[in-house]
Design brief:
Helix content is 40%, strand content 22%. The chain has a domain of 167 residues. It has 315 residues and is of the alpha+beta class. The chain starts with a helix and ends in a 6-residue tail after the last strand. The longest helix has 26 residues.
């Protein structure tokens, strides 16, 4: 049984890796941020760097849970009820079902117990996009930073024999593609279940082991695709993500994590190098004041950076 589960995981690891490398990113990607983000990326270091934030601290409380919802639907459709009930993957690890009002807390606990630790930052293919200004550009008082895609590639963190590579990946919004992949993955598990369940039905320990193998497969798939599958309602963002995955909890020290204040709390991030090509001031930014702030750097590292102001009439 363990051998078959390993085979399923190996198959889908290859599918996952091949899928990540199948789409060529544009030459420039755009990062929307507020004035604090602009200062951190452009003004506070000799070399421009961007921060990859612990995804548990992102602004979207449903981050990582879209794939869980799709997995739940597919499992319920393709596995018998007794098998679904035996799986621990979807249950609240603290016992019982949380009230609907506590859905955000339930999502957080599920993420903390099922997903590898990830650090990420987001980019868009679109420069000067209204929805991006509203949601990520401080309501139009922020900035859109154009970054060379090439500068984001081939970065890694190394400590001793441990190496973690940063990966630039596109977000998949097409629900039919997401559903198709998940159904095919669950079909592999269902085939394995149908093969072994009748034989193991009288051996409770062996049956429990089989469900444990299925849980591990679900955890791997959920973790692998959690930050790549996104609700189709967000498709206008045309998002790419720079991600580093800490798949071994004991190796967190290989990542140069730093802390910063965010709102009323503390969050962790890791730096990555980037080459800034352009900076667009938001619709509500005082452009001349922004240009004056950039002036001391125009003869050094901002010399070839294109400065502009958004022409979107946002009030």
């Amino acid at each position: 049984m363990a051998i078959e589960a390993d085979g399923i995981k190996k198959k889908w690891r290859e599918i996952h890796a091949n899928g990540r490398g199948s789409i060529t990113p544009p030459e420039t990607l755009y990062h929307y941020t507020d004035v604090h983000g602009l200062h951190g990326i452009v003004f506070s270091n000799n070399d421009s760097e961007i921060w990859l934030t612990d995804f548990r601290s992102t602004n979207d409380p449903t981050e990582g849970c879209h794939v869980k919802t799709l997995l739940e639907k597919s499992v319920a459709k393709n596995l018998p009820a007794n098998a679904v009930a035996a799986l621990g993957y979807f249950r609240n690890p603290h016992g019982g079902m949380l009230a609907e009002a506590d859905e955000m807390l339930a999502n957080f606990m599920w993420i903390a117990n099922n997903l590898d630790r990830r650090f990420l930052t987001s980019f868009s293919e679109s420069e000067n996009e209204l929805s991006q200004w509203v949601h990520y550009g401080a309501g139009g008082t922020g900035y859109c930073i154009g970054v060379s895609t090439e500068s984001l590639l081939n970065q890694e963190y190394t400590a001793g024999d441990i190496t973690f590579k940063l990966q630039l990946i596109p977000v998949e919004y097409r629900l039919h593609i997401q559903t198709k992949m998940i159904n095919e993955f669950i079909a592999d598990i269902a085939e394995c279940y149908e093969k072994h369940a009748p034989i193991l039905s009288t051996h409770s320990r062996a049956l429990s082991t089989m469900y444990g193998e299925f849980d591990n497969l679900l955890r791997w798939f959920g973790s692998a695709y959690s930050l790549e599958f996104k609700n189709p309602h967000f498709s206008s963002e045309r998002e790419w993500r720079l991600i580093v995955e800490v798949t071994r909890p004991d190796s967190i020290n290989a990542i140069p994590a730093r802390s910063r204040v965010k709102g009323m709390g503390i969050t962790w991030y890791v730096p990555a190098k980037c080459a800034v090509q352009s900076i667009m001031a938001g619709p509500k930014v005082e452009y001349e004041q922004f240009r004056a702030a950039c002036a001391p750097l125009m003869f050094t590292r901002l010399g070839k950076v294109r400065l502009s102001k958004s022409d979107i009439p946002l009030r």
